[in-house]
Amino acid sequence: MEYAYISTIGQDSHRFKEEIKDPSSNFIMLGGYPVPHDRAFEANSDGDVILHAITNAISGYTGVNILGGAADELCLQKGIKDSRVYLKEALKYMKDASVVHVSITVECLRPKLKAHIPSIKKSVASLLEISEEHVGLTATTGEGLTDFGRGEGVQVFTILTIKVPS
Length: 166
Prior knowledge:
By secondary structure, the chain is α+β, with helices and mostly antiparallel strands. It is built from 4 helices and 6 strands, in the order E-E-E-H-H-H-E-H-E-E. 28% of the residues lie in helices and 30% in strands.
């Protein structure tokens, strides 16, 4: 069988809430993995910007708007705030196509992600049912040129490579 390979991009960002909490009892979700942090995201859901960016990239391929569509119903009407559920919903529309690689760039000043990158990659790989070797994850402060690089939130860009039977 022959295949076509399609690339699609996704983006998401969330601002942090103003109030500071005890870091030992607070975390943010990134890629389905809890990363300790002293501020929560301002979001209706868990605010997982990595999974939201991946979900948006899948929507770019399928044409089915999950965030702002099905996810709003799941979150606002059914109280489901777990972004893994939104990603699984997006994957339902892939039909015979499959994600074979994901490249993720996270821009933030904090939290520092270096120690968490292996766990985030493992979580994303599991959710997409791909090898951890096919999950690229980098983090940058962007030299503090944006609100994200100045510590006000987190921004993520992701590119998916999708394998489609031709």
